[in-house]
Amino acid sequence: MVYxxxxxxxxxxSAQLFRADPDSTRYVMKYRHCDGKxxxxxxxxxxxxxxxxxxxxxxxxxxxxxxxxxxxxxxGPDADVSEVTGKEQTEAQPGKKGRGRKQ
Amino acid sequence: MVLxxxxxxLNELTSMFEQSTEKGTxxxxxxxxxxxxxxxxxxMATAGEPVEYRCLIRATNGKKTISTSVGAKDHQRFQASYxxxxxxxMTALKKRERKDKKKAAGADKKEGSKKP
Lengths: 103, 116
Hints:
Chain A is α+β, with helices and mostly antiparallel strands and 103 residues long.
């Protein structure tokens, strides 16, 4: 099992794996409250990437990763992810702010 | 394998987390699927119809499995609820106390006030 130590590398490689084969790639999350451990796995049944942690800050990062995967999976692998924050901004935008026209 | 609607799925997921607090694991799997067979998909592709993809979400506590399917329009709402559930339940993880992780804004402020 390939355990990745760097979070950013895990995210980068998972996204790549998904884009390469969106139909067979899956993302699995395992949480054990009694042990206080979280393990993430992304695999396309040929290659497998895993990430384990017991840190609360990684849970927050995982939430962002969840958002990325949700977007990729429901909208399609070519969906613009931009680390999710970019995506949320573009969606919240229509007409309210930034145009400057106050009449 | 129980296929549920969005909201019942979220409720069941919450109760799964609550039940496995003392002992047990919760697994959640995310996968893209069009929910159609390969033959149908090929037909749709050649006929020029856009294949609609949905996100299949499965959760299990080892004994019981529940699942739901989320489309592009439900995904925002599901995402928000899902994040809330996870945040509420993943409380057993350790908090980082090291000073070298300055990216955590809260820790930064605390250190700022401690140091003279």
